[in-house]
Amino acid sequence: MTFRDAVLVASTVAVGLMAGLFFAFSVAVMPGLAKAADRTLVDAMQRINAAIQNGWFLLVFGGSLLLCAGAVVLWLRDGGRGPLPWVIAATVLYLAVLAVTFGVSIPLNDRLDAAGDPGGLADAAGVRERFEAAWVRWNLVRTLLCTGALGCLGWALVLSGRAAAEAAIRTGRM
Fold first, then answer.
1. What is the rounded distance in angstroms from the CA atom of residue 88 to the CA atom of residue 69?
2. Nearest partner of 146 among 25, 55, 6, judged by Cα
3. Which of 2, 22, 4, 5 lies closest to 150, judged by CA?
4. Do 141 and 100 contact (CB within 8 A), yes or no?
5. Phi and psi of 78, rounded to 5°?
6. How many other C-beta atoms lie within 10 A of the C-beta of residue 52?
7. 71, 4 in Cβ contact below 8 A?
8. Do the Cβ atoms of 90 and 75 come closer than 8 Å?
């Protein structure tokens, strides 16, 4: 395995972790919280938003972009054959995930946090109303974008393997 292939595998794993996180929120966390009381949803999301700001999350969240961009550069240096268009597509899709996160999700999280202690909210239902539907909708967008990026990287891996096999056959190493 070449360094270029290792970066492609690492970017696939990192983006897969992010797609899984967004997917889990879409299919389990938010549907579960949808059945909770207003204060419970506000409290839970405030706690989740605080807990997710940790080194492991930030490493994978930011590392996904760096690894994808690194894979693009490495495939460009190699003449841009095979997987390059798919790695570029994955990078663009992941950039869109970041745009949604920084442009919509984080501001919604910040407004939710600014509402204060859920136990002391005079209008927990209003706080929830201004947060939940928009956050859920845009998280679904992130889920779809990130899953698309993962699919592109998966296909890039297939193409990379094919290219390696064809090269081995051409050079008689197989």
1. 8
2. 25
3. 22
4. yes
5. -95, 15
6. 13
7. yes
8. no
Question: DSSP letter at 123?
Answer: -
Cβ–Cβ under 8 Å, residues 149 and 97: yes
Q: Give the number of other Cβ atoms within 10 Å of residue 119's Cβ.
A: 9
Cα–Cα separations (whole angstroms), residue 19 to 10, 75, 107, 152: 14, 23, 21, 12
| DSSP H helical ranges for the chain | 3-24, 30-34, 38-51, 55-77, 84-100, 106-114, 124-170
Mean pLDDT of 8-37: 98
Residue type, 32: G
What does the pLDDT read at residue 80?
59
Comparing 22-31, 125-134, 157-166, which segment has the lowest mean pLDDT? 157-166
Full-prediction pTM beyond 0.85?
yes
